[in-house]
Amino acid sequence: MKRRFNTAEGETRSRLLPEGLSHLRIFIDRSSVEIFVNDGDAVFTSRVFPDDEEHYMKLCSGDAFTRVWTLDPAVKDDFLI
Q: How far is Cα 1 from Cα 76, in angstroms, rounded to an integer?
């Protein structure tokens, strides 16, 4: 991400997993990221504000099985009164 917020508070969070990592779910939409570790043993939530060209996710190391869904908007932007 090119734009950074709250850098004085730190940009990373960590949690020890005594039983190790067995399951990881990451939900990403236009401005939020939610990470559920081991079915909720640890949960991380953050807001993000990507630029137009920042529309990808990169796995830095390890093996992963991924599924990606493209969802339709829940609400249309044009409201009629």
A: 28
Tokens found for residue 25: 């779910």
Q: Report yes or no: 43 and 36 within 8 Å, Cβ to Cβ.
A: yes
Q: What is the pTM of this model?
A: 0.65
Reported as half-sphere exposure (CB side, CA atoms, 13 A), residue 34 has a value of 6
Spell out the per-residue pLDDT of the chain, length 81, in tens.
Answer: 566 666 777 767 788 888 888 888 888 887 888 999 999 999 988 887 777 777 666 666 677 777 777 778 777 777 666
